[in-house]
Amino acid sequence: xxxxxxxxxxxxxxxxxxxxxxxxxxxxxxxxxxxxxxxxxxxxxxxxxxxxxxxxxxxxxxxxxxxxxxxxxxxxxxxxx
Length: 81
Description:
It is a single chain. The protein is mostly helical. The chain has one domain (5-79): Tetratricopeptide repeat domain (Serine Threonine Protein Phosphatase 5, Tetratricopeptide repeat, Alpha Horseshoe). It has 4 helices and no strands. The chain has helices at 5-27, 32-44, 48-61, 66-79. The model is unreliable at 1-8 (pLDDT under 50).
């Protein structure tokens, strides 16, 4: 890895979380896809509890989404480890 690559990656992830949170604020927490995106960003940055909370809200808003449900199950399984 080249010097500074990790820092750039972290800044990019932080930016992704910020943008996902802003999108969730605009949607007023009522858009399952936005919450799913936020959950995935949080999980990628290591915030498993925040990711789990967002994924649970996404699944509650769209219980028919197999993709959202699968990600929630993955997070819950990782939590039990």
